[in-house]
Design brief:
With 348 residues, the chain is of the alpha/beta class. It folds into two domains: 118 residues, Isopropylmalate Dehydrogenase; 186 residues, 3-Layer(aba) Sandwich (Isopropylmalate Dehydrogenase), CATH 3.40.718.10. 49% of the residues lie in helices and 15% in strands. The protein has an eleven-stranded mixed β-sheet, sandwiched between helices. Helix 7 packs across helix 8 and helix 9 runs antiparallel to helix 10.
Length: 348
């Protein structure tokens, strides 16, 4: 069996090629069987690889001096997709030269190019961006969509629920994931027509491989009361950025509080182990690696500002989904659910 390869957009991150390559090298220590295609400026990549001989043996460089900027519109990125480091990484998945692609670049451009090149799986109207968020429960929670689709109808939301549940079964190893819809209240009459209709379909679709537990409000995202939280991309992205901002706010407030006086500094020393656990739990690099569910191929989006540990986690997500054959499992779940959901939509 051919050793799987992962395509890396080496030019996409805010921290530069050095950090991206260091992150890939860190990931390879966890997945020694993987090989990599590194797309980007060859001189910069070779300079970074000098510090990681173990990765050098398992990596092939594909040179390009074209880079998708963070300010580029998706339409601009598509026009230059054939020659950019991001576009070439996605094309490697389409051609079969790689089993997955990882990029820390422009999210909108990555979504547009991936959808155009790879297309969606049968039965999927739109792909959705999904990631794990930390919770107070025993496991993280899968949340989608986090910004790929700003407007969604009930059918889209139901498809997101099915895809998110398939993802949760792989990573969380939960047979019947608890799925909830993000809403402004938990009462049946709350929310938009699309959210209420999606809830109605999910409640009546007993044949789906998930457990629908109704609505959830934004302040309960981290409660651990759900395995999958579904939203349209506009609200989902706001919820994600709010959670990240709140985590930074909490850590900054604690830092100021513990440096405000000698007594506070003494309290910091006593509380240091607990604060370390808090930092680890809230660090976005420990949860880095969002995946576009529903594509005919695996594409993972790393946070633009991720450090080498964050890049390594994004590569780990890609490797895990290659091993578990995510696309095939989503296609199977959608195939089984298709007749059930179609009947519910007709009945509605």
């Amino acid at each position: 069996m051919t050793t799987p390869r992962i395509a890396i957009d080496a030019m996409g991150g805010d921290e530069g090629v050095r950090v991206t390559v260091a992150g890939v090298a860190l990931a390879r220590r966890r997945h020694e069987g993987l090989r990599f295609l590194l797309f980007g400026d060859e001189a910069q990549i070779r300079a970074a690889l000098k510090n990681h001989p173990n990765l050098s043996k398992a990596a092939e460089i594909v040179h390009t001096d074209q880079v998708v900027a963070s300010t580029d519109k998706p339409s601009q990125a598509i026009r230059q997709s054939r020659g950019s480091s991001m576009g070439l990484a996605i094309q490697a998945v389409k051609s079969g030269d790689a089993r997955a692609a990882v990029s820390a670049g422009n999210t909108g451009a990555l979504m547009a190019m991936a959808k155009l090149a790879l297309r969606t799986l049968p039965g999927i109207d739109r792909p959705a961006l999904a990631a794990f968020l930390p919770t107070l429960g025993e496991t993280d929670v899968v949340m989608l969509d986090l910004g790929a689709n700003t407007e969604c109808d009930a059918r889209n939301l139901v498809q997101f629920a099915i895809m998110g549940a398939a993802y949760a079964r792989i990573v969380l190893e939960v047979e019947q994931p608890r799925v909830r819809l993000l809403n402004i209240g938990t009462e049946d009459l709350k929310g938009t027509d699309e959210i209420r209709e999606a809830a109605s379909i999910l409640r009546r679709s007993a044949g789906l491989p998930l457990r629908f537990d109704g609505f959830i409000e934004g302040d309960k995202i981290g409660s651990g009361d759900a395995d999958v939280i579904v939203s349209e991309g506009f609200a989902g992205n706001i919820a994600l950025k709010t959670a990240e901002g709140t985590a930074r706010f909490v850590t900054d407030v604690l830092r100021r509080a513990f440096t405000s006086s000698l007594r506070s500094k003494a309290g910091f020393l006593l509380s240091k182990p607990a604060l370390h656990l808090l930092k680890v739990h809230l660090d976005p690099n420990n949860h880095n690696g969002a995946v576009f569910l529903g594509l005919n191929g695996i594409v993972v989006k790393s946070h633009g500002g991720a450090d080498e540990k964050g890049i390594a986690n994004a590569v780990h997500v890609a490797a895990r989904l290659v091993e578990e054959d995510l696309s095939a499992r989503i296609a199977e779940a959608i195939g089984h659910a298709g007749p059930v959901v179609s009947e519910e939509l007709i009945a509605k």
